[in-house]
Amino acid sequence: MTDTAPRPTLEAVAARAGVSRATVSRVVNGAAGVREALAARVRRAVEELGYVPNQAARSLVTRRHDAVAVVVAEPEARVFADPFFALQLRGIGKELTAHDNQLVLLLTEGREDHARVGRYLAGGHVDGALVFSLHLDDPLPGLIQRAGVPTVFGGRPGWSEGHDDVVYVDSDNRGGARDAVRHLAGLGRSRIAHITGPLDQTSAADRLAGYRDVMTGADPELVARGDFTAGGGERAMRDLLHRCPALDAVFAANDLMAAGALRVLRAHGRRVPEDVAVVGFDDMVQVAEQTEPALTTVRQDIEEMGRLMARLLLRGLDGASGAGALDPGVPPAGVILPTTLVRRASA
Fold it and tell me: Helices in 187-245 by DSSP H: which ranges?
């Protein structure tokens, strides 16, 4: 058996740097009050010895775990099939890694999962939580509130009105939807249909509201319920063609549903965009640039949304003033990122 070298200790670092153990502890734990020249000697000794702080001991000093829970209120099959979640998790992961924090992924599918997540958050394992894809009847916000964990939400929570302490990051869903439908109307299309997302989520409800802002008095038969999946887009598109065969444009509430709609239109012999123009929402290039034809869509910066969520949480944990510190014109409760229309071949 090969002997394992002893793990470098705080005392060994102090001896190498020629400082006290307390000074090393302050530098390692990021505390103030150490002159830069001494701190540099400590950091050099840490690197030379390969010293790794004991996280449990460090947590006792800093009261921080350097870990953040990312709670996605969707089943595992949905999360790993939809590139939206991969992009948002990438943004979160980049920001947490840049600040030496660990990402702990928690998924919820049923009542037992909610209870498990609530127990985990209340157990003091993480410093805060990032939560997205909430539904209106989701018990997670109540569980999180009881756990007392600092939280930033991805997407405007449906109950955020009047709650100034709720911090969230969202995109301009309603404005982006208006831009999409105005674009289709500007092409001369008059029978513009809409495939919604699940309307118990504020993003889908806001996109439907944006559609209605432009299509005032539109035939209700031109609106079909979807679920943010490609299969849901296919089902909704078949339903729309059955109810409204004369439709000449479709605005789908996300790219995956738009891709499903394109497949159904092609199967029914409808040319895109000659017969039916199609616009999506998200601009996930791995979807929008791979459809036939390539998809005109509303771009939201999904990865930046994730980064900003993490940044706001870490800023709050460090004692900064929260979302309002980003821009004097931003309300303290939420940050709304702009959207832009990206024109490709489908409309």
Answer: 202-214, 230-243
Question: Closest Cα to residue 108, out of 100, 116, 96?
Answer: 116
Q: Which residues of 262-281 are buried (b: 16+ CB within 10 A; e: fewer)?
A: bebbeeeebebbeebbbbbb
Q: Do the Cβ atoms of 181 and 193 come closer than 8 Å?
A: no
Sign of CA dihedral 53, 57, 61, 65: positive
Sheet holding 102-107, edge to edge: 102-107, 67-72, 128-132, 151-154, 167-171, 334-337
CB atoms within 10 A of CB 27: 22
Rounded to whole angstroms, the Cα distance separating 235 from 237 reads 5
DSSP letter assigned to residue 330: S
pLDDT value of position 88: 96
Paired strand residues for 73 = none
Q: How many alpha carbons fall within 13 Å on the CB side of residue 299? A: 13
Task: Considering only residues 329 and 16, tell me which one the structure prediction assigns the higher pLDDT.
Answer: 16
Torsion of CA 126, 155, 138, 323, to 10 degrees: 50
Output the pLDDT for position 243.
96
